[in-house]
Structures are given as structure tokens and as C-alpha cells.
Amino acid sequence: MYDFEYHKPGSLADAVKLLSADPDARPISGGQTLLPALKHRLNKPTSVVDLSGIAELKGIKKEGNKLVIGALAKHFEVATSPEVKAAIPALAQMAGTIGDTQVRNRGTIGGSVANNDPAADYPSAVLGLNATIVTDKRRIAADDFFQGMFTTALEPGELLVAIEFPIPEKAGYAKMRNPASRYVMAGAFIAKTGGAVRVAINGAGPGVFRQTEMETALAANWSPDAVANIKQDADGLNSDIHGSAEYRAHLVTVMAKRAIAAAG
């Protein structure tokens, strides 16, 4: 690990000021990605800005027909929140399956979404529920936020403050986990909101994406049978020692069927 300065601001404004003043500064929330990178000398920031003491980034609340989750909400908090369980049970269930106990008590929803790891869970919920990303500068639609592997619409120095999830009529999530790392090999988050259906696939490709053919089929017939014969194209999907692109393409359909069954 290289030397760096450590800052722990008490407000969002102070954090933004620190990050804006130094392009090589890096924010940290739960540290599930940045800390390993620092330990392996894969990242060399001049300073690390600890966001954990900022009250404006915390909290989970229901506002009208949407659920607002602060960027610093830990996976355990999302999984056990009465508000999340009542409004979007599939999101609570998702959070409860991330990593292990240690990860769920340190990792945050904002850190996961901002990092946009292809094998992360939350991006599929954000995209599947058509959520809105709220930053210190603007509001970003889910369809515009994720831009490829580890890439988002966030600008340098811009901080994710909260995520607004529309409350769906139905939603379900299913995934195939790597038995060692517990990262997603292929997953599907499916939601019906205001009569519209969205199907978001994570883990299978270099980034989360919508499966529009399945969306069309489910809009006409909300049933696992509606997607049973839809084949995901393997071109461009991830392929490694854990599973080929063809295997992951097969898993997309399997996980979609399970997600619909879980949604009811």
C-alpha cells in the first residue's frame, strides 16, 4: 500500500470540496473494492476521503410511491429494513445474499452501484426497477447511468447521494453464484411497474443490460413459460474458467424463469 492522506469530512459539502480540489483523491464508503486495490498497489490515490461520517448519505425511507435509500446504507441494513421488506421484498432478498456476513456489514449500496462491477447484484435492481441515481449535482436515470464494465455516468468528483426506487407491482430476483467468490455468474432482476416490464441481467456480460425480448414476452404473459424458449445470444458475454459464454447465456433464461416465479 502506498502512502496517502486520510480525510473524514462531516458533511457532503466538505467531501465534495476535498474531492474536487484533488483529481487523484478517492472516496471510500465500505471499502470492499478500494481497500483490496490499495493493498495490492493497484491504486495510488494522493488522499482517501472517508464518507462514513456523513449523515446526508444515510437512511432508508418511503416517499410516496418510491423508496429512497441513502448511498451509505449497508447491505445488511437494506436486507433487514422494514421499509424495504414491505415495499420491495425482492430488493431486501437480494441484499441478504450479497457476499458473506462480513461483506454485508461493511459494503454499501452506493459504493456497489458507483463501482459497477459486472458481477455485482445491485446494478440489476437499479436497472430493473428503473431507479433514479441522485448525486450532489443532478439526477440520472438508470438507463443512462451504467456505461460498461466499471464505468458509470458519474463525473470526476461527483458523489452518489441516494437511489430512488419506484415501488413495483411485482419484482423478483434470482442468480447463480460462484461457489468460491459468491459473485454473480448470471442473474436476473425482473419487475412490473405501472404495467411496464423490465428485465435486467447481471453477471453474464461485461455490464448489466436489459433483455428486451423477455420484456416484450412478459408484458403479454407474466409467466415463467413466457421466457422459457427465449435464448440469450452468447456473443459478447463473459467467458472464463468459471463458465463459458454459452453457459452464461443458458443461465440467463434459467435465472429469468426463477425470478418470475419468485415475483409471483
What does this 3D model show about the protein?
- This is Xanthine dehydrogenase family protein subunit M.
- Residues 1-170 form the FAD-binding PCMH-type domain.
- Keywords: FAD, Flavoprotein, Oxidoreductase.
- Strand 11 and strand 12 form a beta hairpin.
- The strands form three sheets. A five-stranded antiparallel sheet has the order 4-5-8-6-7.
- The protein is built from twelve helices and twelve strands.
- The longest helix is centred in the last third of the chain and has 19 residues, at 245-263.
- The N and C termini lie far apart (48 Å).
- It has two domains: 5-50, Uridine Diphospho-n-acetylenolpyruvylglucosamine Reductase, domain 2; 57-263, Uridine Diphospho-n-acetylenolpyruvylglucosamine Reductase, domain 3.
- Helix content is 34%, strand content 23%.
- It is α+β, with helices and mostly antiparallel strands and 264 residues long.
- The chain has helices at 12-21, 34-39, 75-80, 82-87, 89-95, 101-104, 109-115, 122-128, 142-145, 212-220, 224-227, 245-263, and strands at 5-7, 25-28, 47-50, 60-63, 66-70, 132-135, 139-141, 160-166, 170-177, 184-193, 196-202, 209-210.
As for the CATH topology of the largest domain, it is Uridine Diphospho-n-acetylenolpyruvylglucosamine Reductase, domain 3
Overall 3D geometry? Answer: globular
What is the CATH architecture assignment of the largest domain? 2-Layer Sandwich
Could you state the order of secondary-structure elements as H and E?
EHEHEEEHHHHHHEEHEEEEEHHH
Helix content: 25-40%
Structural class: alpha+beta
CATH class of the largest domain: Alpha Beta
- The order of strands across the largest sheet is 4-5-8-6-7
N→C terminal distance: 48 Å
Mean pLDDT: 96
Segments where pLDDT lies below 50 for 5+ residues? Answer: none
Beta strand count: 12
Number of helices: 12
Number of domains: 2
Q: How much strand?
A: 15-25%
CA radius of gyration is: 18 Å
